[in-house]
Amino acid sequence: MSPFFVMSLLFGLTFGQTASLCAPSEYIIHVEKRECAYCLAINTTICAGFCMTRDSNGKKLLLKSALSQNVCTYKEMLYQTALIPGCPHHTIPYYSYPVAVSCKCGKCNTDYSDCVHEKVRTNYCTKPQKLCNM
Predict the structure, then answer these.
(1) What is the pLDDT at residue 35?
(2) What is the CATH number of domain 17-129?
(3) Distance between CA atoms of 87 and 31, rounded to whole angstroms?
(4) For the chain, which residues make up each domain, given as ranges?
């Protein structure tokens, strides 16, 4: 074996567990209110990607905290607010949403993340659509 191949293999084994493909990713949120005439399509960023996890065969021997799997989640985020067009005066026409600034692999915090992967596509408009570039 060549020395370059051996060094590449050692580097991959050493840093492969810490490297991940978890990063901010472009995403479109579709927002509508029953009272408003339009659906708003908002371009934002979310955290998405792959995080290294380990499946333990000794689940009965470990504490529950040692069994939780890491997910791609927010490290830094900020909130922006968009105005939904076509709303009557008695309706609050604002929608606030998170924007991922940076991401990390960590435990899922249900205070600000949806920790369940849905198989049903629910992110669509039923009303005429307006695009919001933030």
Answers:
(1) 92
(2) 2.10.90.10
(3) 13
(4) 17-129
Tokens 């596509």 sit on residue: 121
Contacts of 73 (CB under 8 A, 6+ apart): 47, 103, 104, 105, 106, 107, 108, 109, 113
pLDDT tens column, 47-88: 999 887 766 665 566 665 555 678 888 899 999 999 998 899
| Nearest residue to 129 (alpha-carbon basis) of 1, 42, 11 | 42
Beta partners for residue 130, in sequence order: 40
Nearest of 34, 124, 133 to residue 87 by alpha carbon: 34
Distance from CA of residue 81 to its chain's centroid? 18
Give strand ranges (E) for 67-114.
Answer: 71-83, 94-106
Whole-structure pTM over 0.85, yes or no?
Answer: no
Spatial separation of the C-alpha atoms in residues 67 and 70, rounded to whole Å: 10
